[in-house]
Task: structure prediction
Amino acid sequence: MASSYRIATIMGIPIRVHVTFLLILPVFAVVFAINPSLFGDIQPAWLSYALGGVLAVVFFFCVLLHELGHSYVALRNDIQIKSITLIIFGGVSQMEEVPRDSRVEMLMALAGPAISLVIGVTLIAVYLLLGFSTVPLPGESVPVSGRVIGWLGLINVLLAAFNLIPAFPMDGGRVLRSLLSRRLPYLDATSRAASLGKAFAFMLGLFGFLTLPGGLWLILIAFFIYLGAGQEEVGTRVSFTLEGVDVARIMTREVTTVGPETELDEVVELMLERKHTGYPVLSNGRLVGIITLDDVHSVPRERRNRTTVEGAMSTELVTATPDTPAFDALKVMSRRGFGRLPVVENGELVGIISRTDLTRALEILGE
Result:
């Protein structure tokens, strides 16, 4: 995921934080700090904000445990998890593939909420065993430790409940799809679950609008849910359309290449003439790099007539082979932000696959 930073590795899975998470963490810290039921009555003020920050970090650690629950079940079923990323509204596990087995998908979907529920129920039980009868209210003489335990338990129970709403992109949407796919084609099951997710997002957003300004958060969450439901539906449809299609079937075989000694001004003219914005770079018949429009733009205009491709090209080569599944090539391009991949066989460049090639294939093969 772009704009994210790796902070740890657990079970062999890279754990990353997105910039949106870094922005929302202080907001949670402030909300916890000024809440009268938590730390709002604690003096000095800096201590209440420090405690709010600690609680915010612990809460998102619980979100990470939720995602690790999904990942553990996935790994047990030989589904690779490329990373877990903490974002503004929680966490996202990036899987190599979505399981088609309805039983596996249900187990994966339920694992996260189950972890949250166990954490929540355990903390609430501890809270009650400590002698507190209700969630701490303003004015009650509940020690800080009790407030943290009680509220963290409640938040985790709510997290489990929210994720079990039967609509994409929540875990409940995946549970619903797993149930529907037992009697409907997988695409139809996905479409119905996604439609329910969009409908729920619309109602949540409408309620948020009617309760402004306090409902602003609901509007933001509704937008996230609507976007996630749409992405799940589109992603599933694309994976089905490209299923069984390899790169060799859709790649462009007649590839225009440039040499390392070519000046950038010539590359610009080539781009204008051929209407492509990226070209493989060959030296003595060997692929040594790729030059793109972004690479050209990294060199000031006045220097392009004396700068060669070798001085600006990207040497980080990510390639495909003719038998690479087309959907895998699409995932690589999306994840890395590439517009094209050179196709190499036995060390020789045999073609190139671009987003345009993939889009055209989807148009032809789609319904």
Residues 247-365 form a domain with the CBS-domain fold (CATH 3.10.580.10).
